[in-house]
Write a structure and sequence with these properties.
Blueprint: H1 3-14, E1 16-22, H2 30-41, E2 45-51, H3 57-66, E3 69-74, H4 79-85, E4 88-89, H5 91-96, E5 101-104, E6 110-113, H6 116-127, E7 136-140, H7 144-154, E8 160-164, H8 168-177, E9 184-187, E10 197-202, E11 220-228, H9 237-244, E12 249-251, H10 254-269, H11 276-287
Parallel strand pairs: 1-2, 1-3, 4-6, 7-8, 7-10, 8-9, 10-11, 11-12
Antiparallel strand pairs: 3-5, 5-6
Helix pairs in contact: 2-10, 6-7, 6-10
Pathway: Metabolic intermediate biosynthesis; chorismate biosynthesis; chorismate from D-erythrose 4-phosphate and phosphoenolpyruvate: step 4/7
Pfam family, one: Shikimate_dh_N
Active site: 79
Length: 288
């Protein structure tokens, strides 16, 4: 090995390694987002996307950290597996029963966190000036995506939070788990008739395939807003529904994606990146 090879080897060992695991993962924007954060903050790190099916999750995580990895993001369908794998969990991860961020601790243990909810709330408050306190909020869907955002929303003191789902019992049960955190109830879609909400959040995956839950007319109050946790290069079916129903703002989840990534970056690096330039860049690229 020459001197230059030795120097290159030393430099490589100084670069901390991070990754996102998921299945499928090839369209993930996370590597780009974290590289932009690293450039902006002067952090030396590597961040890659790795295709990991559920049955290989434990082996892949163990190998990643054994080979010097510092932190992982986990996306669908691995968040519940990551929750079980983490040695310790933050309160928000414990409540959500899902982990999207694993951070290696100084003692070698893995801390599990869920940054989805804070990512959503930050996008709504900081980027879109949508106030959540003392308003009527509706979440469509009672799956894992909903569970991850409930506690951070209730922390903002809404007037009421309703979870609507095709399977009524699932919505009622999920609401019951958070009853001590604020004014929350669960119901079926038919119970939304003659009710109005100031903010409607779509936490189902239906709109990506062009479908919507059965939503009654007049559901969105005058001056209300809509937000789809999913995102795409084209407006989702729910974003279009919001516009058709005269939402002041009808948004998708690209900002949430960047904000939850920024929270993970802060957990790992202790540095909080500026998100707005990254959101603006990604928005301009998909509108080109």
């Amino acid at each position: 090995m020459g001197i230059m090879d030795g120097e290159k080897s030393t430099i490589m060992t100084l670069i901390d390694r991070y990754a996102v695991f998921g299945h499928p993962i090839r369209h993930s924007k996370s590597p780009r987002i974290h590289r932009l954060f690293a450039e902006q903050t002067g952090q030396a790190l590597e961040y890659t996307a790795v295709e990991v099916p559920s049955e290989l999750f434990q082996t892949a995580v163990a190998m990643f950290f054994a080979e010097g990895g510092k932190g992982l993001n986990c996306t669908v369908p691995l968040k519940e597996l990551a929750w079980r794998y983490a040695d310790r969990k933050t309160e928000r991860a414990q409540l959500s029963k899902a982990v999207n961020t694993l951070a290696l601790q100084p003692d070698g243990s893995l801390l599990g966190d869920n940054t989805d909810g804070i990512g959503l709330v930050t996008d709504l408050l900081a980027n879109h000036a949508i106030v959540l306190s003392d308003i009527r909020i509706l979440i469509l869907g009672a799956g894992g995506a909903s569970r991850g955002i409930i506690a951070p929303i209730l922390e903002q003191s809404p007037q009421t939070l309703v979870i609507a789902n095709r399977t009524v019992d699932k919505a009622v049960q999920l609401a019951a788990e958070f009853h001590d955190k604020g004014p929350i109830t669960g119901c079926g879609y038919d119970a939304l008739e003659n009710r109005q909400f100031d903010l409607i959040l779509n936490a189902t995956s239906a709109s990506l395939s062009g479908q919507l839950p059965p939503l009654p007319g007049g559901l969105l109050a005058a001056g209300g807003n809509c937000y789809d946790l999913a995102y795409g290069n084209e407006p989702t079916a729910f974003v279009r529904w919001g516009l058709e129903n005269h939402a002041v703002k009808s948004l998708d989840g690209l900002g949430m994606l960047v904000e939850q990534a920024a929270e993970a970056f802060f957990i790992w690096r202790g540095v909080r990146p500026q998100t707005r330039p990254v959101i603006e860049l990604l928005n301009s690229e998909r509108q080109a």
